[in-house]
Design brief:
- The chain is an alpha+beta fold.
- It is built from 16 helices and 23 strands.
- The chain starts with 12 loop residues before the first helix and ends with a helix.
C-alpha cells in the first residue's frame, strides 16, 4: 500500500507577518545604533585643562606606585640581610623538602600579611610533595570510580589511608570548582545525612580564593575535636591540585588542653583527559588523635569509646575500631563523590540564572504609512507597516553607506586618553613584574654565591641515591616480587654514580688489576674493592661464565679448586635470583640474604647484587650478624672476541638487630686475632686482615671465572680471528 504524502505544515498568514515585522524592527534598531556611533566620530580639539588633569592623575598614580616599590625594595633588602646572616651560620643539617617539622603544622601570631605568608608556605610545601605522597599508590587505569580504605593500628596508634578515583564528564574548570565547593560544604551536609542540603552560601559568586583557613570544633561524646583546616588550590593548564592539611597549633587561636587534635593531609589531583572529561584522584591520611597543647596520643580505649565500642581485650577493641573506621570512611567518600555532582549542578543552575538576559529595544521606531499608489489596494494595516519598515530600512542602509564613505576623522580625546591609559597601565604592570623578577633573581644569585663561597657548605640534600630502609628490606605478601624489582632497579640505575669515583686503569698493558681499600671511621670498618680484567671471548660467553662463576664461587673457594663447577649450572638469565644463607661460626651466625640480577643493554651487561638486611618472609634471630653488601659487575663488549669486566663492591661494618654495630673486640675474637689494649692497634690488625683476605678472594675469583670461561669455550666451535686480543697483547699502546 503506497504511503500517503505528508501534509506540509503552512504558517498562519498573520503569524508570518508578525515574524517579518519583528525581524524588520530589529534590523532597523541595529542600523540606528550604527548611525549613532558613526555620527559620534567627529574631531574635537583638546583643551589644556583636560590634558593637565589627565597628566596629573597619571603622575600621582605613578608616584604612589614608585613609593610602594621603594618600600618593597627596602623590605626585601632587610630580608636579604637577615637571610645572608643566617646563611653564614654553622648549620649541621638542612631539612629536606619531605621532612616534617613544627613549621609544617604551626601558625604564628602576627599581622595578617605574615600569617598569609605562613599559610602559603605550608600549602606550597604540601603541594610540592604531591608526587612523592601519591607515588606508592596504584590507581586503576580504567575510568571506573574507586574507593580504597586502609587502616593500620600499631603500638595502639591508629593511621588511616584513603584513596579514591572519580571520572566526570565535565571540563577541568567545572570539576575543580565543584570539588572546591564540595570540600567547604561536605562536613555540614554529612552531619545532616542528606544530599539535598543547600549550597548557596558557598557557591562561587566571584572567582574562588586560592587559600582558605577554617577553624571548626566538633563535639564527639564527652570530647571536643578541634579542626583547624588549611586548604589551597593550585591551577595549571591541564591539571588542578587541591591540598589540605590541619594546623596542629595556632598561636592566635589556641586550643583547650583537653581538646583533641588530628593530623590530616589530603591531596586531590584533577587531570583533563579531554575537553569534557576530567579524572580526579584523591589521597588523604589521618593520624592518631592527640591531646591539646601537650601533643600526647589519646589512649585507644578513649578513642574507641567515641564510636560506642565497649571496653574489652585490647586486640578486640583494635579490631572493632579498625572495622568501624574502614566502614565510616568508605561511606564518607562515596557520599562525597555524589556531593561533588550535586555541587556542580547547583553551581551551573546559579550561573544560568545570573546570565544577562536578552536586551530589549528601547528606541521607538518611526513607522510611516506607505504612500506608494501601487499599495492602495492593500487594506491590511500590518502589510502596509511591513512595507513601511522595508522602505525605512533601505533609507537607513543608504545613510550608513554615506557616513562610511566620509573622510577619516580624528579620534576624540576621550578615546585617545582611554587608549593611552590602557597601554600605560599594561606597560607599568609589565615593568613592575620585570623589576620584581629581576630583584628576585639578583637576590637568589647573591644567596647562591654566598652559599658556594662558604668554607663549610651545607650537607647535600638527600637524592634518589640516598640509602633508606626501603633499599634493603623485603616485605612478605603479594608485593614481595614488586619490592625485589624496585630494589634491583634502584641499584642498577645507580651503577654510574657508585663507580664514578673509582679510577680504573686505561692503560692496555695493565690487563688485570685489583685494588682493596679498607677505611675506618668512628670504630666502624668499611671495605671497598675494585677489580678489572680482559677476557678473549664474546660478551655473551663472558656473561654466562661470570654467572656460573658467581654461583659456584663459594664451593670452589672452600675447595681451593679454580674452575670447579657444581650441578646447578645455568645460562644467562635476566630473572631475579634470591638466596638466603645462614653460616654458623663458633658463637655467632652470619646471615647472607642476597638479591641479584643481570641487566642486558646492547653491548653492556650489568650484574647488580646486594644483601637484604631484613626479610619478613625469612626472619632470623636478633643476635644474627648482618653485613650490608653492594656489588656491581659491568661487562662491556670491546670487540667480537674481546670483553672487559669491571667489578666494584662495598661491605659495611657488621651489625645485629639486637646489639647494633658489632664491637671491634668481638670482631677480633671472631677472626681469631689477639686483642690489644690499644683500640687503634686493633683496628690496624683488622684492616690488614681484611685487605689480605679480599685481595686473595678477588684474585681467586678472576682465576675461577677465567677457568670457567675456558671450560665453556671447549663446548663452542673454534672462533676465527682473535685479532683484538692479539693486538692488545702485541701492541698495547696502539690499542688505546
Amino acid at each position: 500500500m503506497p504511503e500517503a504524502p505528508k501534509r506540509v505544515r503552512r504558517r498562519n498568514p498573520e503569524s508570518r507577518c508578525a515574524f517579518k515585522l519583528e525581524a524588520l524592527k530589529r534590523e532597523v534598531y541595529a542600523l540606528q545604533c550604527t548611525i549613532t556611533q558613526l555620527q559620534r566620530r567627529k574631531s574635537s580639539s583638546l583643551s589644556w585643562e583636560d590634558v593637565a588633569r589627565a597628566l596629573q592623575d597619571d603622575t600621582l598614580r605613578l608616584v604612589g606606585e614608585n613609593r610602594e616599590l621603594q618600600r618593597t625594595q627596602r623590605a626585601y633588602a632587610r630580608f636579604y640581610r637577615v637571610v645572608t646572616a643566617c646563611a653564614q651560620l654553622s648549620i649541621d643539617r638542612v631539612p629536606t623538602l619531605t621532612e616534617e617539622t613544627w613549621r609544617h603544622a604551626q601558625l604564628l601570631a602576627g599581622d595578617p600579611a605574615s600569617r598569609q605568608l605562613g599559610c602559603e608556605w605550608i600549602l606550597k610545601q604540601v603541594h610540592f610533595n604531591t608526587t612523592r605522597a601519591m607515588a606508592h599508590i596504584a590507581f586503576p587505569s580504567d575510568g571506573a570510580s574507586y574507593v580504597d580504605v586502609h587502616v593500620n593500628i600499631e603500638a595502639d596508634l591508629l593511621q588511616i589511608h584513603v584513596t579514591t578515583q572519580q571520572v566526570l564528564a565535565f571540563t577541568l574548570a567545572e570539576v575543580a570548582d565543584a570539588y572546591w565547593i564540595a570540600e567547604q560544604s561536605f562536613a555540614r551536609m554529612y552531619v545532616g545525612q542528606t544530599l539535598d542540603a543547600a549550597t548557596d552560601d558557598v557557591l562561587p559568586h566571584s572567582p574562588p580564593p586560592t587559600v582558605q583557613y577554617i577553624q571548626e570544633s566538633l563535639k564527639y561524646g564527652l570530647y571536643d575535636v578541634c579542626y583547624n583546616v588549611l586548604s589551597g588550590r593550585f591551577d595549571e593548564p591541564r591539571r588542578t591540585t587541591l591540598v589540605l592539611r590541619t594546623i596542629l597549633q595556632d598561636e592566635m587561636h589556641p586550643t583547650a588542653p583537653s581538646a583533641w587534635l588530628v593530623d590530616t593531609k589530603q591531596w586531590t589531583v584533577a587531570d583533563a583527559l579531554g575537553p569534557n572529561l576530567t579524572r580526579c584522584r584523591t589521597y588523604y591520611t589521618i593520624q592518631h588523635p592527640m591531646l591539646g597543647q601537650s601533643h600526647t596520643s589519646v589512649p585507644l580505649a578513649d578513642f574507641a569509646s567515641v564510636f560506642g565500642i565497649p571496653a574489652g581485650h585490647p586486640r578486640d577493641v583494635a579490631s572493632a575500631l579498625r572495622n568501624r573506621s574502614e566502614a565510616n570512611h568508605r561511606r564518607q567518600r562515596t557520599s562525597f563523590q555524589a556531593w561533588v555532582v550535586i555541587s556542580h549542578r547547583d553551581a551551573t543552575t546559579m550561573a544560568d540564572a545570573e546570565a544577562p538576559k536578552k536586551r530589549r529595544m528601547t528606541i521607538k521606531l518611526p513607522i510611516k504609512p506607505s504612500q506608494d499608489p501601487r499599495l492602495d489596494h492593500i487594506k491590511s494595516k500590518r502589510a502596509k507597516a511591513l512595507e513601511a519598515l522595508r522602505r525605512y530600512t533601505y533609507e537607513l542602509t543608504t545613510e550608513v553607506c554615506r557616513l562610511k564613505r566620509g573622510q577619516v576623522a580624528m579620534l576624540p580625546w576621550e578615546d585617545v586618553a582611554i587608549g593611552l591609559k590602557e597601554d600605560m597601565l599594561e606597560k607599568v604592570r609589565e615593568n613592575r613584574a620585570l623589576k620584581q623578577e629581576m630583584e628576585a633573581r639578583r637576590r637568589m644569585c647573591q644567596f647562591l654565591h654566598d652559599c658556594l663561597g662558604r668554607s663549610s657548605p651545607f650537607n647535600t640534600v638527600p637524592s634518589l641515591a640516598e640509602e633508606t630502609w626501603r633499599h634493603s628490606q623485603l616485605l612478605s605478601g603479594p608485593s614481595r616480587e614488586l619490592g625485589c624489582e624496585w630494589i634491583l632497579n634502584q641499584l642498577y640505575h645507580n651503577t654510574e654514580r657508585a663507580m664514578a669515583h673509582v679510577q680504573f686503569p686505561d692503560d692496555g698493558r695493565e690487563l688485570d688489576c685489583i685494588d682493596v681499600n679498607v677505611v675506618s671511621s668512628g670504630g666502624l670498618i668499611r671495605v671497598e674493592v675494585m677489580s678489572q680484567e680482559y677476557l678473549p671471548y664474546a660478551l655473551e660467553h663472558v656473561v654466562e661464565a661470570y654467572g656460573i662463576a658467581a654461583a659456584s664461587f663459594t664451593k670452589a673457594y672452600l675447595r681451593k679448586v679454580a674452575g670447579y663447577l657444581d650441578d646447578s649450572k645455568a645460562g644467562v638469565s635476566t630473572d631475579i635470583h634470591y638466596e638466603s644463607v645462614l653460616q654458623p661460626h663458633r658463637q655467632h651466625t652470619i646471615c647472607y640474604n642476597t638479591l641479584s640480577r643481570f641487566f642486558l643493554a646492547g653491548d653492556r651487561c650489568v650484574l647488580a647484587l646486594r644483601t637484604i638486611l631484613k626479610d619478613d618472609e625469612h626472619p632470623v634471630p636478633t643476635s644474627t650478624w648482618i653485613m650490608n653488601t653492594k656489588q656491581w659487575v659491568v661487562i662491556d663488549r670491546l670487540g667480537p672476541h674481546l670483553t672487559r669486566c669491571r667489578t666494584f663492591y662495598t661491605i659495611d661494618h657488621p651489625c645485629s638487630e639486637a646489639g647494633g654495630y658489632v664491637s671491634v673486640a668481638e670482631m677480633m675474637r671472631f677472626r681469631g686475632l689477639p686483642i690489644c689494649a690499644n683500640e687503634a692497634q686493633n683496628l690496624m690488625l683488622l684492616r690488614d686482615r681484611f685487605h689480605e683476605q679480599h685481595r686473595l678472594q678477588r684474585s681467586f675469583f678472576q682465576m675461577h671465572a677465567r677457568c670457567v670461561a675456558e671450560t665453556l669455550a671447549v663446548r663452542l666451535p673454534a672462533s676465527e680471528g682473535l685479532d683484538e686480543w692479539t693486538a692488545m697483547m702485541q701492541a698495547p699502546e696502539a690499542a688505546w
